[in-house]
Amino acid sequence: MRHTGNRHGRSEAARQAVLEAADDLLTERGFAGVTIEGIATRAGVAKQTIYRWWPSKVDILLEAFADDMEEHLFPPDHGNVGDDLRAHLHRLALFLTESDPGEVFRALAGQAQHDPVLAARLRADYLSRLREHDRVPLQGAVERGELPADLDIDLAVDQLVGPIYYRVLVTGDPVPREFTDHLVARFLHD
Amino acid sequence: MRHTGNRHGRSEAARQAVLEAADDLLTERGFAGVTIEGIATRAGVAKQTIYRWWPSKVDILLEAFADDMEEHLFPPDHGNVGDDLRAHLHRLALFLTESDPGEVFRALAGQAQHDPVLAARLRADYLSRLREHDRVPLQGAVERGELPADLDIDLAVDQLVGPIYYRVLVTGDPVPREFTDHLVARFLHD
Amino acid sequence: MRHTGNRHGRSEAARQAVLEAADDLLTERGFAGVTIEGIATRAGVAKQTIYRWWPSKVDILLEAFADDMEEHLFPPDHGNVGDDLRAHLHRLALFLTESDPGEVFRALAGQAQHDPVLAARLRADYLSRLREHDRVPLQGAVERGELPADLDIDLAVDQLVGPIYYRVLVTGDPVPREFTDHLVARFLHD
Amino acid sequence: MRHTGNRHGRSEAARQAVLEAADDLLTERGFAGVTIEGIATRAGVAKQTIYRWWPSKVDILLEAFADDMEEHLFPPDHGNVGDDLRAHLHRLALFLTESDPGEVFRALAGQAQHDPVLAARLRADYLSRLREHDRVPLQGAVERGELPADLDIDLAVDQLVGPIYYRVLVTGDPVPREFTDHLVARFLHD
DNA sequence: CATTAAGCGAGACGGTACGTCTAGTCTTATG
DNA sequence: CATAAGACTAGACGTACCGTCTCGCTTAATG
Fold it and tell me: What confidence tens digit (pLDDT) does each residue in B55-94 have?
């Protein structure tokens, strides 16, 4: 199909303004305070521009999350399995509890309980990438012979990160380094 | 203050109708489909009656959850620690994934990510009771000498139930008996 | 409409397409259904092209009306005053009630009630020409001595055509030949 | 159907505020400036309240017109036919050109050119009553023997009021007493 | 046994946000 | 340099719920 129309196309400035406004509103007023109307006003953008590019407010948050998440996708370390896991779990905990995208993630994870379509997208597009990173230290350890070759890595990931997400999303308890270190210690046979 | 008015007081019929309507709407249309207006219409109740007794729709769901949860607060078994834990985790998984109150719980847990006040109430009034039950098998095992006396039971609970909640709330993976059995095996072996 | 680029000034094809589209939309969907967006789409023309040449949708309709009106500006007859007036009023009635430009005129006259600027333009550019034609049979009759030399022709025109416009724009009654003939009879008898 | 709800029902204060706001906006900003949003804001009323009671903005104007029109429905005089007709046409001219409801009428008559349903309502509910009043002086004159018994009164009304509406709605010329007096004079055989 | 005040169903109210539509402006590549 | 394409800000549309309020009915303990 020929495209003879306006080639400068979508305004990157508007896109950025919308994502930032959504982020700010989430921080300042919580998920219910994130409204299309509010985003439009704060971003100095017309509602129609938002509806042109995003089907709903969660799509805006997803995109904001995607943009930010990249920076927090810490590369794997290259020490021994214990150091790798301890570092990884600690950074995961910090990501979930302290970072900006962590806040967005918690909001999206909450909304996903009400919205199966969002849940599916969140898993397919984002959680799968987080989980790949969770697997890296274990994969490396298996390859280096530090862990048995028949280790069920997915199961091990559930065991290691499950308690962290549980504290973050359910009990609301803090996730200090002692906690993540302890998880690693237990995992590696005390 | 003298009370000379209608002493038969609150209508239990209206209360039940509201709770059931909220439950039904949650199942049929999801959390966003649970509206005060919708509950009132379906329950054949005036909005004012709802606002008289419940501050918000989550309070209605909390009350519905409280009523139902009781029946699922399975008493602890009295076998050995392995059987107890396996039975307990399996029933917890069933509760979260299959039961009616489990559905309500997931919705409330989701909403709690957006609403710190709800989060606090949920933890104080409901999660704490669930956790008490989670502690029972471990407590018994310690008392029977099956587990060391210096076991940090709270930490152990996080390790055991964390991965279950993680699958339920985050990955959406099923939680089969093999999974919970494996968690117990790892916990007891280490 | 296939037209890309042009060094030869304004595109007559685009002009025609716009005028026809406006006319069609007016007939099919009424005045409210005539939108710049709709005209652009139907004419296969860019909105900008419309805005470049016409300040508003009523200007488009005015231009369409002007093009069509010419054909209906019936030349005066040359019989006696009675025949002239009967023929003229009948053709005026047909023009207003049956013709395409008559439909556009009614829409513009309606809009003029909301828009004083349009009202002024309509009167200055179009109604004045219609009225000139209304005067012709009377002028001729005066010159031929059929009507008194001191006749106030403008007043006479108001009397003769006023009831016709009244039926067309206000009561919605039909304007049959009997009606216009009667008007002439009353006018000439008095 | 039993009505067991709130019997105080509709708020007369809100109704009045809406009608006045609509009237004011029409005067200040013209027909296009009359928006539901604007009426709601100026009247201090919720949009939903407007939509509950009126299907559209023209219905609001119709109701405002109906309320006001009553006061201008001048009772017939009881002099001779000449005095009656002169007084009647003069007051009709004043009503159409100077009064508040006259302004609303002109706007509605304009809109009726775009909206056949409104046109039908306007004729059935309002114009018919105006026309009844137009007939009164003629009817009286016929009964008193001042005019022939076989007079076609409807035709006579068209002749008498048509030129007035024509000036008001089409040419925009003023309608002074001389004009209406002249119409009567011509009608009564000079 | 009549009084009387609380609970109730009904529903109007002032609001906020929704998602859609059109207006009118601006920018770009094409021919 | 006029054009087709189309993104942009602006703002009204009509709808859905929110949470508050007022009304008249029903009910049962009090006086």
Answer: 999 999 999 999 888 788 777 777 899 999 999 999 999 9
Asked if A140 and A130 touch (Cβ cutoff 8 Å), the reply is no
Domain of residue A124, residue span: 62-189
Q: Is B34:B61 a contact under the CB 8 Å cutoff?
A: yes
Do D18 and D92 lie in one domain? The reply is: no
Q: Are residues B101 and B38 in the same domain?
A: no
> What predicted TM-score, i.e. pTM, was given to this entire model?
0.87
Q: Give the chain A residue whose CA is nearest to the CA of B162.
A: A163
Instruction: Write the CATH number for B38.
Output: 1.10.10.60
End-to-end CA distance of chain C, in Å? 59
- Protein CA A69 to sugar C1' E24 (Å): 39
Say if residue A91 is in the same domain as residue A41: no
Can you give the pLDDT at residue D5?
A: 47
Say how far C8 CA is from E26 C1', in Å.
24
Q: State which residues of chain D have pLDDT below 70.
A: 1-8, 76, 190
* D107 near C CB under 8 A: yes
- Report the CATH number that the domain containing residue C129 is assigned in CATH: 1.10.357.10
Determine the distance in angstroms separating the CA of A125 from the nearest CA of chain B, rounded to an integer.
Answer: 12
Interface C-D, measured as beta-carbon pairs within 8 A, has a size of 107
Measure the CA–CA gap between D61 and D108, rounded to whole angstroms.
8
Dist. CA D90–CA D179, nearest whole Å: 9
For residue A49, say whether its CB is under 7 Å from any atom of strand F: yes
- Cα C148 to Cα C3: distance, rounded to the nearest angstrom: 60
User: Using the beta-carbon criterion (under 8 Å), do A111 and B114 form an inter-chain contact?
Assistant: yes
- Answer yes or no: do A97 and A177 share one domain: yes
Chain D residue numbers with beta carbons less than 8 Å from the beta carbon of C167 are 158, 162
A165/B167 CB distance under 8 A: no
D94 close contact with C: CB closer than 8 A: no
Q: Identify the closest residue of chain D to C165 by CA–CA distance.
A: D166
Q: Which nucleotides of F are covered by protein (CB under 7 A)?
A: 1-31
Distance A41 CA to F10 C1' (A): 11
Residue-wise pLDDT for A60-115, tens only, equals: 999 999 988 888 877 767 789 999 999 999 999 999 999 999 999 999 999 999 99
Considering the domain architecture, whether residues D44 and D104 belong to the same structural domain is answered as no
Q: What does the DSSP assignment read for D78-120?
A: -S-HHHHHHHHHHHHHHHHHHSHHHHHHHHHHHHHTT-HHHHH
Asked if residue C49 lies in contact with residue C1, where contact means CB atoms within 8 angstroms, the answer is no
Contacts of D111 in chain C (CB under 8 A): 110, 113-114
Average pLDDT for consecutive 10-residue bins of chain C (190 residues)? Answer: 53 90 91 92 92 92 87 77 94 94 94 94 92 93 94 96 98 97 90
Subset of residues 41-80 in chain C with CB less than 7 angstroms from any atom in strand F:
44-49, 52-53
Distance from C-alpha of C114 to C-alpha of D32, rounded to nearest angstrom: 7
Domains of chain C: total: 2
Alpha-carbon gap, residue C135 to C99, rounded angstroms: 21
Asked, for residue A165, whether it belongs to a domain, the answer is yes
Question: How do residues D107-122 score in pLDDT, each as one tens digit?
Answer: 999 999 999 999 999 9
Q: Is residue C139 part of a domain?
A: yes
Asked whether residue D121 is assigned to any structural domain, the reply reads yes
8 Å CB contact of D111 and C115: no
CB B86 within 8 A of CB B137: no
Residue C6 lies in a domain: no
